[in-house]
Write a structure and sequence with these properties.
It comes from Streptomyces formicae. Belongs to the UPF0162 family. Pfam families: TPR_9, Transglut_core2. This protein has 276 residues and is an alpha+beta fold. It has two domains: 175 residues, no CATH class; 54 residues, no CATH class. 58% of the residues lie in helices and 7% in strands. Helix 2 packs parallel to helix 8 and helix 9 runs antiparallel to helix 10.
């Protein structure tokens, strides 16, 4: 944990628990955790860039399709925001300040750029978490227009959306898949992506740890994340901290899963034994 991390985490927790959590501030605080070079001025600069981009949009271009087209022309066309397969291999692709700088990123981060720029301009915009591929939606359910920021903002037909879903699940698209994504759910998905990136790189367990710890600051999170954090602490050689975290997790699950709780307490004892 770098010097300012405690302050960033305090602000992250505060923002996540506010009445209307801000997507851009939360994403930028993730970036501050990942990048010690990102300071207050850098966070302000990223917000200013989002404001600047919003100012380049035409004034209220029309209905959902007109908004989606205007965003695609500006961000995808003029500014060159898009994604490539290689972006999945870079941690920067999950960090909003780096996505704004590089104009490259994962689908969900590019969607955050689209949403934040469009929102500032007054568009009826929201995120849509299709299985395996995040996109943005404009307009109400009966007049919904979907755009794919990873593909430069290409407007998606119903058949396009069906293909994206079928490629991931093998099944058809369900109406529930097209509902607006909650900002905190988007943040959790971003942190899950970062953890997945780190899981493929055992030497970056530091990244996996802070992504887990930020996830635990969200007001709602799976209890199992506490167990994963405890295991990671042990793997990183913090046997005492890991053992304490394992015992805490066992206390949480003991009433509903007593067998699991006993197994976890055994793991805690084994971790403490490694200190000898």
């Amino acid at each position: 944990m770098h010097a300012e991390s405690g302050e960033w985490r305090r602000r992250f927790a505060e923002e996540a628990r506010s009445e209307r959590p801000g997507l851009a501030p939360l994403c930028l605080l993730i970036g501050a955790e990942a990048d010690p070079a990102l300071d207050e001025a850098g966070i302000d600069a990223a917000e200013i860039e989002l404001d600047r981009l919003a100012g380049l949009l035409p004034f209220r271009p029309g209905g959902p399709r007109a908004w989606a087209t205007a965003l695609a022309e500006l961000l995808g066309g003029q500014c060159g925001f898009e994604g490539t397969p290689g972006d999945y291999q870079r941690l920067e692709s999950s960090l909003l300040h780096e996505v704004l700088r590089r104009r490259r990123g994962l689908p969900i981060l590019l969607s955050v750029v689209w949403m934040e720029v469009a929102r500032r301009a007054g568009a009826p915009v929201y995120g849509v978490g299709l299985p395996g591929h995040f996109v943005v939606g404009f307009g109400p359910k009966d007049d919904q227009v979907l755009a794919d920021p990873f593909d430069g903002g290409r407007l998606l037909t119903g058949a396009d959306a069906e293909l994206l879903v079928a490629g991931t699940t093998g099944g058809g698209i369900q109406p529930s898949m097209l509902t607006p994504a909650d900002p905190l759910n988007i943040v959790q998905r971003i942190l899950n992506n970062i953890r997945a990136w780190a899981a493929a790189r055992p030497e970056r367990s530091d990244v996996a740890l802070w992504a887990l710890e930020l996830s635990l600051l969200l007001p709602s999170h799976p209890a199992r994340l506490r167990y994963e954090r405890a295991q990671l602490l042990v793997q990183r050689g913090d046997f005492l901290g890991g053992a304490e975290a394992l015992d805490e997790y066992a206390d949480v699950v003991t009433t509903v899963e007593p067998t699991t709780a006993e197994r976890v307490r055994h793991q805690a004892r084994a971790a403490r034994a490694m200190l000898n």
